[in-house]
Design brief:
By secondary structure, the chain is of the alpha/beta class. The protein has one domain: Vaccinia Virus protein VP39 (Rossmann fold, 3-Layer(aba) Sandwich), CATH 3.40.50.150. Helix content is 37%, strand content 22%. It has a 7-stranded mixed β-sheet, sandwiched between helices. It is an enzyme of class 2 (transferase). One of its GO terms (biological process) is methylation. Keywords: Methyltransferase, Transferase.
Length: 226
């Protein structure tokens, strides 16, 4: 297991049991992203950093024809996700696997290399090599598909004291909002000849980024955004 995997298992060994209850009040923008996924009928969806499986279950209910996949580095979180997916009656539509967001092999984990929709929800701010994770996610998008990201923003519209308090609190959970995320999304979109849509929501509390990959995407080599 990688150092980051051990760290995440340590952080969430006990928190995973109350994670969804406590996070729903401040992980804003997730449900809006999920409701807009709109995979094609029978399409494939991948969540990178799937955690407790909460988002995949929501996506499964919103898009009943979609085939869902989730990867996470924490075995503790995956244990919770497996239980939750089974309780939701989605075991036949959700495949979960352990892997590093920066370097997993989708073919070996899921039997496919590309997905119609890929999304990352509040995970890049916890991944030390987040640029590599973004590159990996972009490579997993099928031609004509889309990558969606939601995460903490820069709180540019917040009072300085409130911003400082939020950042201090997030640091306790090894969370660090990424200052270069918007430019990295734009660079990835250019690499594939696609389009990027970046939004700052709730006065900068959270960031929404989208990469639209064209049906005739360019080569899938290294993006070079690191």
């Amino acid at each position: 297991m990688s150092d980051h995997g051990r760290l995440m298992d340590g952080v969430y060994r006990y928190q995973r049991h109350i994670y969804d209850l406590t996070r729903k009040y401040y992980l804003l923008g997730r449900d809006g992203m999920i409701s807009g996924l709109a995979p094609p009928p029978g399409g494939t969806v991948l969540e990178i950093g799937c955690g407790t499986g909460r988002n995949l279950i929501a996506a499964g209910k919103a898009w009943p024809e979609a085939h869902l996949h989730g990867v996470d580095i924490s075995e503790a979180m995956l244990n919770t996700a497996r239980t939750s997916v089974t309780k939701a009656g989605l075991s036949d539509r959700v495949i979960l696997a352990k892997g590093d967001a920066c370097a997993f092999d989708p073919q070996s984990l899921f039997g496919r290399t590309q997905f119609d929709r890929v999304f990352i929800s509040y995970a890049l701010s916890m991944i030390p090599g987040w640029e590599a994770a973004l590159e990996q996610a972009a490579r997993c998008v099928a031609p004509g598909g889309r990558l969606d990201i939601v995460d903490f923003g820069q709180q540019e519209g917040w009072p300085r004291l409130c911003k400082a308090m939020l950042l201090t609190w997030l640091a306790r959970f090894h969370v660090s909002p990424r200052t270069g995320i918007a430019s990295a999304v734009e660079a990835a979109a250019r690499h594939y000849g696609g389009h990027a849509l970046n939004l700052s929501l709730y006065r900068g509390y959270c960031f929404r980024g989208t990469i639209l990959v064209p049906k005739t995407a360019k080569n899938r080599g290294t993006l070079g955004i690191r």
